[in-house]
Design brief:
By secondary structure, the protein is an alpha/beta fold. Among the domains are: 6-72 and 146-216, 3-Layer(aba) Sandwich (Rossmann fold); 297-480, Rossmann fold. Helices cover 35% and strands 22% of the residues.
Length: 483
């Protein structure tokens, strides 16, 4: 096959999950060999679903997906599935192949070197940090040496060094790459075009150019559509007013009035639907627990992981209400482990004041029961709110009637993140523990979330590898676990 030829083509492809949940409607686009494309769209629009259609894991309701003969495709998912967490590194990579690999250890070493991760092959996957698991997911795609790489949110949980390493890899990579990510700076470094999935029309628009240029094109198009809508709406009102005037005159003028009403209706029907995926969650507040007095949490020592072994590091930190702590350090040093121990009350060297309500945002959403519906999950933490008030708070996070009775496990990762934030609002915590809260979240929502955390008046401990996000939040103290 030659460079630049079409290797994947969607032809009038439609797909829906169950009844009344259409994702794609008669979609057409093509991917050329060697292209590096971004898939862009709102949380829940169906970006990850597109990857499953490309790999053949899902089949379209109608239309055809043409894949070039003998084309091989590897997918790096957003998260390691729960049934793989107790595998060893070797077993995890063995599952990437349909046939037994007799020389797998050298292959594992090669791909781990590429993703800049050093790990014993008999180590259990569950014991790795979120950032290390992100590197393992990428390595699981690379080890297959496929023609096409599909990367679903590959920067999630990666530290700054990890993101820089991955960015350079993609710049140098000669393979066809399709990437889903909400990291604009990362995407702009290598993107040559964008597949834009419109949540409202369920169509895909294909754009050429780097990521920032495409975002400008889409923004300009939306402004043009909105201006055209405003002009047509004004003309339609004028036509109706004239029609009403002529209709009252009677005689032949009634026919003219009828034609004017028809013209007005045509103008109204010509208006383009405003893109719903460009909505942003409403500004919100996470209310702090009342009655907080003195130290909410004190730390005299914290667990740190070095060379795959845990040790205690002496510190001296006391957080009262309205104090924000940023926890930093490279992937694998134990940040998520420390947050989990704090949230469960099992952290050595930590004392949390009695009766403090803890709001815990986990990067893997394991605090959510995936069998609960969204409404059941929210109802379980709502304090004295009736059903309508719960649904109103959810709606402000773009969780409407179409999603409120959906099981958590059926939501996209981005939608799970929004549900987790709704729960924090309803919980009214005194201690807020946040582990990578921007993972999977649409970039339009991030400034709104940052503003809410900045104003939070309880005690807060935050882990985030996104400097542009952290810079928008008041941080009173920083603890670097690597120092």
């Amino acid at each position: 096959m030659t460079q630049g030829e079409s290797i994947i083509r969607f032809e009038e492809v439609s797909f829906e999950f169950g009844h009344n949940k259409p994702i794609l409607t008669e979609v057409d686009f093509s991917i050329r060999r060697g292209a590096k494309m971004t898939i862009m769209g709102q949380n829940g629009a169906g970006k990850s679903t597109m990857f499953q259609l490309i790999t053949g894991a899902l089949k379209p309701e109608s239309g055809n997906i043409h894949v070039a003969p003998r084309l091989t495709i590897a997918l790096a998912r957003q998260v390691i599935s729960r049934d793989q967490l107790d595998l060893t590194v070797r077993e995890f990579f063995e599952q990437c192949f349909s046939e037994k690999q007799y020389d797998i250890d050298p292959q594992i070493d090669t791909v781990l070197e590429v993703v800049n991760l050093h790990a014993p092959h008999d180590r259990i996957i569950r014991s790795f940090s979120g950032g290390q698991q992100a590197r393992l997911l990428l390595a699981s795609a690379l080890i297959q040496d496929s023609d096409v790489l599909l990367l679903d949110e590959p920067t999630n949980n990666l530290d700054t060094a990890g993101i820089a390493h991955l960015r350079q890899f993609l710049i140098d990579c000669k393979k066809t790459c399709l990437v889903i990510s909400h990291d604009a700076e990362f995407l702009n470094a290598f993107t040559q075009g964008v597949l834009y999935l419109d949540l409202h029309t369920r169509k895909i628009e294909q754009y050429q150019g780097n990521y920032f240029n495409v975002v400008e094109q889409i923004t300009a198009r939306i402004e043009k559509e909105n201006s055209a809508n405003a002009r047509l709406a004004k003309q339609a009102i004028e036509k109706k007013e004239k029609a009403n005037f002529f209709a009252m005159k009677g005689g032949r003028l009634r026919l003219l009035a009828k034609r004017m009403r028809e013209d007005a209706q045509e103008m109204e029907e010509s208006q383009v639907d405003v893109r719903k995926e460009d909505k942003t969650i409403r500004p919100f507040t996470i209310p702090a627990q009342t009655g907080l007095i003195g130290d909410v949490v004190t730390l005299s020592s914290v667990g740190v992981i070095k060379n795959h072994k845990s040790t205690q590091k002496k510190v001296k930190i006391a957080l009262q209400k309205n104090r924000h702590l940023l926890l930093t350090g490279p992937n694998g040093i134990g940040k998520s482990t420390l947050l989990e121990a704090l949230a469960s009350g099992k952290a050595k060297g930590a004392v949390i004041a009695p009766d403090v309500t803890i709001g815990y945002y986990r990067q893997d959403f394991s605090t959510l029961n995936f069998e609960d519906t969204v409404f059941e999950s929210l109802q379980s933490v709502a304090q004295g709110l009736d059903n309508q008030e719960i649904r109103s708070v959810a709606a402000s996070f773009l969780i409407g009637s179409d999603a409120i009775f959906t099981k958590i496990g059926s939501l996209s990762e981005g939608q799970k993140g929004l549900v987790a934030f709704v729960r924090l609002v309803l919980q009214r915590p005194g201690l807020l523990i946040l582990d990578e809260p921007t993972n999977h979240i649409n970039f339009r929502h991030i400034p709104v979330i940052a503003a809410a955390l900045d104003k939070y008046q309880g005690a807060m401990i935050l882990v985030s590898h996104v400097p542009s996000f952290v810079s928008q939040i008041r941080i009173d103290e920083t603890l670097d676990l690597a120092a």
